[in-house]
Every structure is written in C-alpha cells, then in structure tokens.
Amino acid sequence: MSASAGKLRVALVAGEASGDILGAGLMQALRERHPNVEFIGVGGPRMQAQGLVSEFPMERLAVMGLVEVLGRLRELLKRRKDLIRTLIAARPDVFIGIDAPDFTLGVELKLRQAGIRTVHYVSPSVWAWRQKRVLKIKQACDLMLALFPFEAKFYEEHAVPVRFVGHPLANTIPLDADRAAARDQLGLPQHAQVVALLPGSRGGEVGRLGALFLDTAQRLLQQRPGIRFVLPCASPERREQLEQMLQGRELPLQLLDGQSHEALAACDAVLIASGTATLEALLYKRPMVVAYKVAPLTYRILKRLVKSPYVSLPNLLAGRLLAPELIQDAATPEALVQHLLPLLDDGSAQTESFDAIHRALRQDASAQAAEAVLELVEKH
After folding, report:
1. How far apart are CA 78 and CA 56, in angstroms?
2. In whole angstroms, what is the distance from residue 121 CA to residue 28 CA?
3. Does the keyword section mention Lyase (predicted)?
4. What is the pLDDT of residues 99-151, one digit of tens each?
5. Would you state the pLDDT for residue 279?
6. Does domain 179-361 fall into CATH 3.40.50.2000?
C-alpha cells in the first residue's frame, strides 16, 4: 500500500516507558496528517491508547546493562525473529524503531533488506561509545530522527540521513514551571527547602541507588533540619521496593505514585540517576547532582568503551560540566551532600544554561518527526 493510495500502515516498536511516550506523540501527529492510518508493532499503554495493537507486552524488552541482558538473551532473540517474520508478512509502508537500539536496529536491518522503509527515532549513544555502530545504522535505516543537535551533527559527519526534530518534552514542559502551585498540589510547605530524589525507574537502578540516595537525604537533614524530600515511584513495584528501604529510617520524605514532573516542579534541587530524567530536571530548570552505579562488570566494560567525557544529558547538551556527575565508587553520601548543599543556596550557574538549552530543543518534535516520516513514505 502507498500513503497516497489511501490507507497508511505504520509499524512501530518501543522498548520502554520513554519510548512509549515518544511513540504515542508521533502516532497522534501522524494521524492528524493522515487520518486513514493503521498502527502495528510493539508498544506500551500510551501507544495502545493511540490505536496500536501490540504483538507482545512492551515490558519484555525493558532490560538494560550488558551483563543484565545475557539472562534474557534467548527470549529477546526469539521475540525479534518472530516479530520480523510478522512485519515482513504485514508489509507496512514504514517501520519506526523507537530507541531500544540493540533490539530495533536488528529489526530495521531485516525489514530494509525486505524492501520496507525504516526510520530510527532516538539516536543510540554512538557518539559516546561503540562508534562503529554508525555503519550498522547506515545499513539498517533510511532516516535517523535525532532529538539533540549534537547527534544530528555526528550523523551528518558520517553521511547518514538525519533530521533533528527537537525533544517532545521541551514543548510539553513550560519554560517557567510554577513551583508554588506544584507544592500546593503535593501538600509541601512553601518556604521549606525541598530536594527531589530520583533513583531511577528500573528495579536494578533503585536497588543500586535507592539506599545511597536515602543515606544522602539523612546527612542533608542533619545539615539542614527543616529540609523536605519527595521521591516519585515509577511503579507500584518500585514503591514497595523503596518502602522496604525506608524501614527504620526517620526522614521527612513523601513517596509519590508517578508524579515525577510535579516533584521536579516543586523542588529546589534534585539528586538524580543518569538517564532521561536528567533532561526533565533540566527542562524544569532545577539544579541537579547526577549519580550512577551499574553492575561492577558492566562498569569495567563501559569504562574501556565510552568515548564521551560526560554521562548525563545536561552536560552533553552544554558541551561542558554543568551538573556534577558522581559515578560508581565516587557516588558516596558524603560526596553527594557536598555537591548538593551549594545548589540549595544558589543553582543559577546551572539553571541559566538549562533555560537556553530548553529553548533550543523546543522544535515541536512529534510534528517534525511525523512530517519527516511521511516525506520518506511519499518519496518512495
């Protein structure tokens, strides 16, 4: 089927919650431009709400870390093989792999070889490590949709078709978030200092960082007796995990169900795991300290492979060290407190740069991505 002939069939695969959000925005923008569209593939609740019939639960793809993937490798390979067979039979007009590159690029390669146009939405971190993957990307996809300008520059240098679309969150998050309203919504005092703790959304992340962040909070409380803490839980499972970690601790801490954006809007500073949430903290203009720990073997492998001087998006986007990064053994409660205290008094050195980055990323990404996808379909 061709797009101009009427019905448009779009296949999409997302591997985790952030991809589900991006996919849903793109699907909505595609439908606005081409109402007669059908969506197939794999996605979460947001993409399913936009009309996607998911071949299997998206959560089966949500696994990270080099060592951690090994335990699930057989299942992942079988799911990918079955999905490729299903999609080749369905002959979509275009396939869009959303993030999850270790899974989706393999799908894209096989589909492109079968004559199906392919798009990859969200660049893998090829500029940081395993740079030779750009050759595989060149083979696998007809178009890369990049969220950040430094990524588009990298692909242009490697002659890979690319479109910088901006980041959807830069449009949905206001340029000036209302701290007072967020505090009212969460029942937090207006004049207390508030720190948001974001130890990650996955069980493994919370297992490695949860107790560290709570230990840090206890030390901060000793230094600042009136301080308050909020901790958004990504799921009921994460809430249960954190409730167990809180047993025996006396902390003025509020666990939230979801509500990470409300927590960021309400707080004065953030202690945060490296990942997508650091971009959200940047867009809310909240000064942050970034911490991260992975399995020791994963860390030893990554340390040899990573080419980038920074791990967090705010620093990558700024091209300099804006937010302190404490990785692996450097992430101790003492060190985290030492970096957080000055930010509670004055975080403007970070937040002024965050504002400039926010404005640069405000490109109406879902609309830009939809237009790029439809141009590709029409061209072929």
Report:
1. 12
2. 15
3. no
4. 888 899 999 999 999 999 999 999 987 765 567 789 999 999 999 999 999 99
5. 95
6. yes
